[in-house]
Amino acid sequence: MSTAPPEHHPRITESLRSRVRLGRLWRLREQMIQRDIGTVVLVDPVNIRYATDSRNMQIFTARNPARYVFIAAEGPVVLFDFAGCGHLAAGLETIDEIRIATTASYVAAADNLAETTRAWAAEIHDLVRRHGGGNRRIGVERFNAAAAFALRKLDLDVVDAQEPVEQARCIKVPGEIDLMRASMA
Fold this sequence. Notes:
This protein is 46% helix and 14% strand. The chain has eight helices and six strands, in the order H-E-H-H-E-E-E-H-H-E-H-E-H-H. Strands 4-3-2-1-5-6 form a six-stranded mixed sheet.
């Protein structure tokens, strides 16, 4: 077995990484389409990493929705990242656009939570309207309840995003296990 660090593993090429990134995103979109979910908003850092291969502040964002990704089943992927951190995901072929996140949580908004949540929901609603293909079903995960209520007030059909994500993750795309093995090495 090679003693080289995983990023220098002889079988792991940028081409393989790219194929796995695109394969994971395709697999998630396939699961969304099977469940008639036009768009999802993922906030779990592990799921953002799975869908886009983008990572940033995973411990902090495990508790705070300061970073999230909008994925259209048949449209763009928009990463909402913490201010000043967009460069960390720049160049990934799984991300079409990077915006500054609106953190709809008490930790960031405090007494302005209701106003911040409405602004967050309005931006997501606009993306659904423009890129959801007429499908108003949106999968969300791990946001505060007010975020889901705000989306519903904008006439979106809010469903749990966990099912399509977990179903996508359970079947590995070609090359994914090689990357996992290299990472464990």
